[in-house]
Amino acid sequence: MAELGVEARRREILTAALALADERGLDALSMRAVAARVGVTPMALYPYVGNKDALLDGLVDLLLAELLPAAVTPGAWDVRLRAIAHAGRALAHRHPAAYPLLLSRPAITPDAVRLVDALYGALLDAGVPPAQVPRLERLVSTYVLGYAVGEITGRFAPADPRRHARAEAAGDSAPSHRELSGVLAQPPDWDAEFTAGLDDLLQVILNHAAPSRPAHAP
Predict the structure, then answer these.
(1) Which end of the chain is more exposed for a tag (fewer CB within 10 A), N or C?
(2) What is the chain's mean pLDDT, rounded?
(3) Where is region (Disordered) located (predicted)?
């Protein structure tokens, strides 16, 4: 590695680890593999990123840092919330292997605080009572993270004719599937669905907000 300051070298290592996860998946991420990518011995990593757990926490930091530009989007409260939400989903598609770490590891770094603070600020600007702000922030974050993880892990699969055929064959044992047969046979539009879900969430926020704080059309 080139001669760098401690923080710059740490970022260099984490960037290499994220690139490795993007290319080969999170299971391939080991201290030895990251060291080989950077061009040092595994022991040389420890002063900068600690052990494997600390390395994974560092990846969470790096992912959150990519969202900070969206957190300073100018405009009305709903414009800012939409920007953060869409940036969060886009982040999942850029880094599908590492993104689930955001659901499984704590994020209490300065970047994480700044990101959550931006969400708090948008909710406060919407007129949400302070006592409800943390709960609604969790609601928005859970929607964005959960939806994005559903996409990148394949849980939200395209319309599968085999599933439709099985539902048809089930007959009376799957009456709701039969009623929705025409809808379920259509390929989903994930972009439109994500935006519609976000619209619903903004309406929930408005239900708690001062009546003088309307949302703007996307």
Answers:
(1) C
(2) 87
(3) 160-181
